[in-house]
Amino acid sequence: MIIIQNHDIVQQNKSHIAFIVSSGIITGMNAKKNKRSFRGGIRPIRLLPIGYLAIILLGTLMFMLPVSSAAGPMGFMDALFTAVSASCVTGLSTIDIANELSSFGQAVLLLLIQVGGLGFMTFATVLFGVLRRNLTLLGRMSAAEALGEDGTGRVKELCACAIKYSIVIELIGAAVLYIRFRGSFAPLKALWFSVFHSISAFCNAGFDLMGNFESFTRYCCDPLVCLTLSALIILGGIGFAVIHELMHARKLSPLSQHTKTVLVTTAALLIAGFVFNLAAEWSNPGTFAELSVPNKLLAAWFQSATLRTAGFNTVDQLALRDGTKLFNAILMFIGGAPAGTAGGIKVTSLAVLLLTTRAFLRNSPNTTVFGRSVSPFAVRRALCVFFIGLSAALLSIAAISFAMPDAGFINTVYEVFSAIGTVGLSAGITSAAPDAVKLLLCMLMFIGRAGILTVALAIGGKSNEAILRYPEGNIMIG
After folding, report:
1. Cα separations in angstroms, 353 against 7, 347, 385
2. What kind and span of H or E run contains 59?
3. Which 8-state DSSP code applies to residue 186?
4. Quick one: pLDDT at residue 5?
5. C-alpha to C-alpha distance for 356 and 374, rounded to whole angstroms
6. d(Cα 105, Cα 269) in Å, to the nearest integer?
7. Is the pLDDT of residue 12 over 50?
8. If you count Cβ atoms within 10 Å of the first and of the last residue's Cβ in the chain, which end, N or C, has fewer?
9. Angle at 403 (CA atoms; ends 393, 100), nearest 5 degrees
10. Which residues are paired to 3 by β-bridges?
């Protein structure tokens, strides 16, 4: 006997809503109208990766134009890699951005970073609102997927807030950075550097204009630059829904379960990264050893903040100890919060998995956090994200190890987790990689930005088993 179960519909999870609508199973809507809209068309879950692919293709073509390069037209592979890295807000690069891109090319790069950081569906939704046009159900569902919303009710509001908050935060960041840069560069160049790096930091992209792949190593001991960039990185990484809730929070109104989970987990990861990097690199002559104690604290804090998927660095990443690289790779894999500019499996997935493990060890039937239960669907989703992401990373590590045996295993691990976490910190592999490895890194960056589970669901076929429940069997575990 087969029992129909409505649990996943009641959960209103965005991925399953998209799946259900695309299957023609619609509740509380005009079924005939929506069936006509989706039958034979693009499934909502597929619109996000398709949109990112379109942006990447356009960016590749723009970078291949002679006007984008400061020294002759860019080759296809470098143009593709740069477009992928910018659109997926990663920061890994095969070229020296400051010296090989023209002013036009840098402007294209910055536009791709901004669109990739906020998400193209955010811009599309706001543009439709400005033109007084209604977004289709497909568009609203896709925007909800991008923003991490279970329903479409707050899509327009959150998209407008995302752009508003981004502009305000990036302008404040640029103004503060200009205070420092105006003393080192000409006024117009200082202004451009301030705007570029503020947007790059808030979007967790990690691209810089310092030249020669040195990132912000010259500002390693500069509190104004390091603390400003780290603040922008963290704000971009916690997600627009969290920023929106914090901006409208009232004294007597408790924060949501999601916001509390994001803030607590992010704080814990920042502290863990700071303490570990400080202790592990304290006496390393290639990184912290020559710094004063206050500057060691500053360098360790910035290293921890940039692991939230930003990609800037103030110390030589290749000189980090192997144990530090491995620990940092784990932090890069975790990434930031959903519906933000960061990548990775997301801090909420980590929190749910840890809380589920705790509940099992305590023989508790429910996963709980802050006095509320976590739905079984959310637990399964977190498990899938972790398993698929880790599998993709491990297979890529094996492939690159065969293709570049002299690169070093731990450096390969560092580069792969940096790519799939859309971080951008490099141990030197990307710039020396053959085309096949570059393509693999492009795939990892794309998966990390479009969403590990989103890409998996977009590739997967439809199945009626999503709403069926079969009799239980028994499999021995452990």
Report:
1. 21, 10, 11
2. helix 44-63
3. -
4. 40
5. 9
6. 35
7. no
8. C
9. 85
10. 469
